Amino acid sequence: MSHEIAVIEGDGIGREVVPAAIEVLEALEVDFEFVEGEAGDAVREATGEALPAETYEQVADADATLFGAAGETAADVILPLREAVDSFVNVRPAKAYPGVDALRPETDVVFLRENTEGVYAGHEDRLSDDLSTLTRVVTSSASRELAEYACEFVEDGRGPAGDPEEGFTVAHKSNVMRETDGRFREAVLAVAEERGVDADEELMDAFATKLPLDPSQYGVVVCPNLAGDVLSDLAAGLVGGLGLLPSANVGHDNALFEPVHGTAPDIAGEGIANPTAAVLSAAMLLEYLGHVEEGTRVRTAVESVLSEGPRTGDLGGDATTEAVTAAIVDRL
Amino acid sequence: MSHEIAVIEGDGIGREVVPAAIEVLEALEVDFEFVEGEAGDAVREATGEALPAETYEQVADADATLFGAAGETAADVILPLREAVDSFVNVRPAKAYPGVDALRPETDVVFLRENTEGVYAGHEDRLSDDLSTLTRVVTSSASRELAEYACEFVEDGRGPAGDPEEGFTVAHKSNVMRETDGRFREAVLAVAEERGVDADEELMDAFATKLPLDPSQYGVVVCPNLAGDVLSDLAAGLVGGLGLLPSANVGHDNALFEPVHGTAPDIAGEGIANPTAAVLSAAMLLEYLGHVEEGTRVRTAVESVLSEGPRTGDLGGDATTEAVTAAIVDRL
Ligand SMILES: CC(C)[C@H](C(=O)O)[C@@H](O)C(=O)O
Ligand SMILES: CC(C)[C@H](C(=O)O)[C@@H](O)C(=O)O
């Protein structure tokens, strides 16, 4: 069975790391049909639209999408594309790797971020010359759906500990956002209780203090949308930067995979970007499509290259994107 | 001239660290009249109210307040008290000290957190069985007032670098919250431009990645309310925990000072809590009331004790609150 994969390089280093990930996918015995689409600053400059309707359709119609990065237009591109795949959860593993200089080498956390609402629901109003409002939206149904996913994730042993007993932590700010985060918290904890999954909780500010102090106390972390954005980026700072973090926007029967990093304008075009996050995003894509063994092969190859080199400049090496990609392919 | 200081110990270790801070204040040649008030879980249990009207009035009428911590009722106590002193900015220095084990010993950042609006404005509605909303509020006037304070702060050399040229960084999420954080960002940058203060900006998620990677690139950081809460708590994790962080809620002619930490129920009542954050809050109170020299004396004494001991358990020592307080008083 062939899989149709929408491929959107976007801007900046997206144009370098996505081809690297495709090269890795093509080296496997999996039948892919790649359909290229455009989105981002460059296409907006050319056409006035950061996300052409055609690209949106390609993503909505594909079996899965591999996305790179967009510049200024990031929000205009990625937020609608998350909708295009009907994504309700953003899966963001943050893991330190042997051989990579990390502030907290023991970090191994997977964030499951609500992907449809919170402040991202985006109802904003300019009520006067002085005052604007944003309506933050939380539903029990979206919170429950996220929690169901989290429970399955843990039950399937997909958490860092690989043990269904590890449960998850829910991070929120329900002492201030009593009605909205109160609803989120209650819905998530209720699902965990129904399914017999262990769940504890942490206020998001306390979580931000405790994660750097001792990341080993956390495994799977379930968060509202913005909290998941910020706390997973914090974790990136503990494992050595955004160059390593893949992510998956998972929907009901579609998904989009993207490195957490941006376009890195300072190094774009030089062929020296770290392809790791994009290649690990491709590994998540493989697993999502049922090619678990191939996903593991890619991960193992990536980990071996991270620990033995060659490495790109962000990791203290001087290898090119091409050399690192070739080394990964070599070890598949 | 005597200063009337409202003193609210609150719950848990608040009952231990506030008396320690008072002991330090009483050792100085400054004329204080202390007025004790009650707030928190214990008084709610006794009277049904976490914040008695009398306490609110004491705080509103005092020249300044020293507050400890409240347990479950923290939000019911501290949010109205910030209003009682008409506070528009929450000043939160996060500094690593020699002698204290810190993940990032080079951290020296002061957060200036908007203290009246954002999600804390607190309009929440339960619109259906499934859906709740929160109205996040941002005004140009509050944003400008915060920015004016930030400019003065920097101009007066009160930033970590002590240099008016250091400027400040504004952290926000205006790529998603375009209208509200867009308004915040614009207002803050406009004031900086008007006053000739250097200002750069960072998305709050990128800030959360970059602060642990290299805190030395930041000095004064200006944030919306919730961002300031979370990002300053993150900084606490880099300097060795909440036991060291003081804070000031500054209003137009009143202010409330509090350690950033909570009630620490696990060690409350044992006389082993670290008084540093409360004593440094008292130093901020001294400076606020114009006793800059005395404030410096307290800081210097605290820093000397941190570097030479005695130390409490959270810092790897086994000294009591009393012993640490006595050592600070000794070195004044
Ligand atoms: C570009 C932006 C809208 C996006 C977000 O906030 O979700 C990004 O920060 C991310 O986390 O993927
Ligand atoms: C207790 C809570 C309401 C408070 C806040 O969120 O402001 C606390 O976290 C703080 O930062 O002082």
TrEMBL record, chains A, B:
<dbReference type="GO" id="GO:0004449">
    <property type="term" value="F:isocitrate dehydrogenase (NAD+) activity"/>
</dbReference>
<dbReference type="InterPro" id="IPR024084">
    <property type="entry name" value="IsoPropMal-DH-like_dom"/>
</dbReference>
<keyword id="KW-0560">Oxidoreductase</keyword>
<protein>
    <submittedName>
        <fullName>3-isopropylmalate dehydrogenase</fullName>
    </submittedName>
</protein>
<comment type="similarity">
    <text>Belongs to the isocitrate and isopropylmalate dehydrogenases family.</text>
</comment>
<feature type="domain" description="Isopropylmalate dehydrogenase-like">
    <location>
        <begin position="4"/>
        <end position="328"/>
    </location>
</feature>
<dbReference type="GO" id="GO:0006102">
    <property type="term" value="P:isocitrate metabolic process"/>
</dbReference>
<dbReference type="Pfam" id="PF00180">
    <property type="entry name" value="Iso_dh"/>
</dbReference>
<dbReference type="GO" id="GO:0006099">
    <property type="term" value="P:tricarboxylic acid cycle"/>
</dbReference>
